[in-house]
Prior knowledge:
By secondary structure, the chain is an alpha/beta fold. Helix content is 28%, strand content 23%. The chain contains 8 helices and 17 strands. Strand 11 and strand 12 form a beta hairpin. Helix 5 runs antiparallel to helix 6. The longest helix has 17 residues. The chain starts with a strand and ends with a helix. About 3% of the residues have low confidence.
Amino acid sequence: MPIEISTxxxxxxxxxxxxxxxxxxxxxxxxxxxxxDSSTPAQGLATCGVxxxxxxxxxxxxxGRTILTHSPNYLYLNTFAPxxxxxxxxxxxxxxxxxxxxxxxxxxxxxxxxxxxxNLYAMPDAARFGHDRWMQDFISxxxxxxxxxxxxxxxxxxxxxxxxxxxxxxxxTAHITYLEVPPQLRRPSTQAYLTVKNPLLPHVYSHAQIxxxxxxxxxxxxxxxxxPISLQYDVSHYCLPLxxxxxxxxLIRSKRLREPVGSQIAILNSFKLQMDWLxxxxxxxxxxxxxTRDTLYASACLIGPPCERCSDNxxxxxxxxxxxxYCGEKHQKEDWKAHKAxxxxxxx
Length: 348
């Protein structure tokens, strides 16, 4: 049965300053995804701030699993393989991709998919996002393995955009609810994205964690590794960000210690990374990709670091290496086994 779609029009009484809607849904950012089943301790998943990317809902009636994910413009479709594996009953990680594509462990199932467009797709120049081409690639990607994995697939490309960049998805049926705000209550265009917040959740996936995830993913991309869509919420709990690589942790430490740019360029050279990321002499003709890398690096360093073991601010720093951050003594002790080797090799 196709996923149902409806609209909820919000009034002034529904909005909490600053431009927030409280609801029993788990919010995930437009740089990651969440997955849920009937045991999820919330009514479903929500997203907000969906602009130039797509929000994608996948539901498998056979397994009772539902996913709300995103596709920023710089992702490889191959990163959807773990998502397709989990929605059909798998673990969603550590895949032997060749064997998986050829049907290893497959069980017959149905998958319903709805592709939702961010609100910038309403702009006159929306053709620059190449949506039709992306849809062709997306359908081709799933068609590549649906036969071998015994999947019956139905994909709906919803042409209507998310007016305030927010949508709710029910955990049991994947029923999609567009959120609308009357024009007189909307914020200016630069702040038009409604925030969905669950006041009953003790933790969220913080802005600092999002920036660190993007930074870690960009480093992987420079090494030719597909940028993953980060799992932010898994059935009943928020997840930690992607682990920082050796290069990433050294770069962030150097930046936060306010070492000269030459020190950071030396780190890039040692890991055979591109120097244009940090080189202050680069000219204005550099690509937007270089600017994006620079922006992600700056954001990951300037925003308060998240604790290594939770989303709280890492106000406590390892005094030996000055390269790991914690919310307090408890989490620092719990992380020592994982941190010990790096700390010993990079003491200052």
